[in-house]
């Protein structure tokens, strides 16, 4: 009986240590990824170019994965930890818009984030 109580307490402590991502952060990330989806830009992941919709889908999966491991406190943390490079190869993601030179996704996403935030002020 004591063994089960100890396991329950430890399991509860582990779940309590991981808080949910704040709703405003999750909404801001989804807005940012929708902006990527509708931008007409392409997203490079591990040497292949994908549409904005495919990029959004991939990054939402990474968001779910990262959020399952620890609490994402802000959108910049999500960009730095999940949306700037491949977790398998370590290669930086890139965004290419209307034939312009590709830029690292972290630069593009943080720039778009600034636009989103200034529009909501």
UniProtKB/TrEMBL annotation:
The lineage of its organism: Bacteria, Pseudomonadati, Pseudomonadota, Betaproteobacteria, Burkholderiales. Keywords: Signal. Pfam families: DUF5329. InterPro entries: DUF5329. This is DUF5329 domain-containing protein. Residues 1-19 form the signal peptide. The keyword Signal applies. It comes from Undibacterium squillarum.
């Amino acid at each position: 009986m004591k063994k089960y109580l100890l396991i329950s307490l430890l399991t509860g402590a582990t779940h309590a240590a991981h808080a949910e991502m704040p709703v405003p952060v999750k909404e801001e990330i989804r807005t940012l990824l929708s902006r990527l989806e509708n931008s007409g830009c392409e997203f490079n992941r591990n040497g292949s170019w994908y549409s904005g919709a495919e990029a959004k889908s991939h990054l939402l999966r990474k968001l779910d994965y990262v959020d399952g491991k620890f609490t994402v406190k802000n959108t910049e943390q999500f960009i730095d930890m999940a949306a700037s490079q491949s977790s398998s190869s370590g290669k930086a993601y890139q965004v290419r818009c209307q034939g312009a030179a590709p830029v690292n996704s972290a630069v593009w996403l943080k720039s778009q984030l600034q636009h989103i935030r200034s529009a909501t002020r």
